[in-house]
Specification:
By secondary structure, this protein is α/β, with parallel strands linked by helices. The protein is built from ten helices and 14 strands. The strands form three sheets. The chain has a six-stranded mixed β-sheet with strand order 6-7-8-3-9-10, sandwiched between helices. It has a four-stranded antiparallel β-sheet with strand order 2-1-4-5, covered by helices on one side. Strand 4 and strand 5 form a beta hairpin.
């Protein structure tokens, strides 16, 4: 079932010389999808999310979100979705502690008593805020305030969640906790998620589908693995082995997604450098790790070169077949 099904969405800003923030966008998202909206600043990602969340009326276009008419039932859409934006923490009450902020919002989302307490405790733990539950928002870091804003929005347990750069301002630990929570929301609870990100690695890790926006237009929408494969870009996985490692004969067919394998001496001549060139890094990497373990090889380092967002847009600009549209 389609949770989002919209056609021809267009939005312009300005009166004398209108600028199109979004141009004739068609988008269909099935239930249970994690969709990554990727694009440079000004591509139209936030405008699209605000439209789909019922916060912004398109100049042209139509469609449905969660079965509600995008134009006539925006209030019902707003009541049925969760949205976390990069500036979501501005709505936090500095006169309430971290926990009290969530307690305040719980009944607004229809949560009361023991159910509300369990939900608040779960989110405090999952988002690494338990140690800060009695702190004032003004006394915690920007990243922790972002996590608190995320917790507030997720109290509602809605079927559709919009996350606009959810890991913005977070440290490494915060990024891991938020990514884990996003994956669990989708896999364990079936929540449909639409997120924007500037990090291609994040999109590859979390998203089942990717939609590419450029200058307000939707230029590609495909399943994540299919999109990455269609770019046909070879990336290296390098494994440096200790001196004396005995290398068996290797073929690209030994590793899913690999196109060629190179073996040479490491710099300085003190070991072996194994390079596997792959068009599907997420599939190839586990196979390489398993190969190294099964052969009992001593690894000094292992690195891989992943696609960047710049790479994706550079490669996606090429003409594509109908299967990739």
């Amino acid at each position: 079932m389609a949770v989002i099904d919209v056609m021809g969405l267009t939005k312009k800003y300005g009166s004398r010389h209108p600028t199109a923030a979004l141009r004739d966008v068609d988008l269909r998202v099935e239930e249970g999808t994690v969709l990554g909206l990727l694009g440079e600043n000004g591509a139209g990602k936030t405008t699209l999310i605000k439209m789909l969340a019922g916060l912004l009326v398109p100049d042209h276009g139509s469609g449905r979100v969660l079965g509600y008419d995008l134009l006539r039932e925006s209030r019902a859409i707003r009541a049925s979705v969760s949205l976390v934006a990069p500036t979501a923490d501005v709505g936090l009450d500095n006169n309430l502690t971290v926990r009290q902020n969530l307690v305040f919002w719980a009944p607004i989302y229809g949560l009361y008593g023991a159910h509300a307490r369990r939900r608040i405790d779960e989110l405090l733990d999952r988002l690494g805020l338990r140690e800060k539950e009695h702190a004032w928002p003004m006394h915690i870091s920007a990243g922790q305030r972002q996590r608190l804003a995320l917790a507030r929005s997720l109290l509602a347990e809605n079927r559709l969640v919009f996350l606009d750069e959810p890991t913005n301002k977070l440290d490494a630990e915060g990024v891991r906790s938020v990514r884990t929570l996003i994956a669990d929301l989708n896999r364990q609870h079936g929540v449909t998620i639409v997120l924007t990100t500037h990090v291609m690695e994040e999109a590859e890790e979390l998203c089942t589908e990717i939609a590419l926006l450029h200058a307000g237009a939707l230029i590609r929408h495909a399943e994540t693995r299919a999109l990455v494969r269609s770019l046909n870009e070879e990336r290296p996985i390098e494994v440096e082995l200790a001196q004396g490692s005995a290398m068996p004969a290797l073929r690209p067919q030994s590793f899913p997604g690999a196109v060629r394998v190179d073996v040479k001496r490491a710099s300085g001549g003190s070991g072996v450098l194994l390079t596997i060139w792959s068009r599907d890094i997420p599939s190839t990497t586990p196979a390489v790790v398993e190969f190294v373990r099964s052969q009992g090889l001593e690894v000094r380092r292992m690195t891989s070169e992943r696609l960047t967002l710049d790479d994706v847009f550079r490669l996606a600009a090429r003409p594509v077949g109908e299967d990739d549209r």
